[in-house]
Amino acid sequence: MTKKVKVYKTIGDYVALVMFAEDVVEILNILQRSLNKGEEDVEDAIRMINYFDTFYNIMKKKFKEYLTPKKNVSDIIRKRVLIDKIKLIKIDETRMVEVILDRSISLDEVLEILVSNNIEVEKA
Prior knowledge:
This protein has helices at residues 21-35, 40-50, 52-61, 73-77, 107-116; strands spanning 4-9, 15-20, 83-91, 94-101, 120-123. It has one domain (4-123). The model has no long low-confidence stretch (mean pLDDT 94). The longest helix is centred in the N-terminal third of the chain and has 15 residues, at 21-35. Strand 3 (83-91) and strand 4 (94-101) form a beta hairpin. The two termini are 22 Å apart. Helix 1 (21-35) packs across helix 5 (107-116). The chain is globular. It has a five-stranded mixed beta sheet with strand order 3-4-2-1-5. The relative contact order is 0.27. The protein is of the alpha+beta class.
């Protein structure tokens, strides 16, 4: 089955990706390799996604809409951060993840990488 990603820009000019939770890790790894960005932030986001139910419950309990992965200060200074924040979404039994990428990453870059890796892209 091909992976599907919905891609759009948010109000603050961030690139956002929405996809099924089971596809996120592979897509983040593709973006990380292609853009040569993200270390601790990607690892922490993957940890949150792997323990989806636990972090989803924490998110709801604390009335948070988004979770922010840990970022290394030196990565922030060198503009090597990939993920700004993530949102865990549950609709019935379907698990979705919204990933907000760092502002330094352009929509065109992301679209090019996803398409070149045979990922179906829905642009919103």
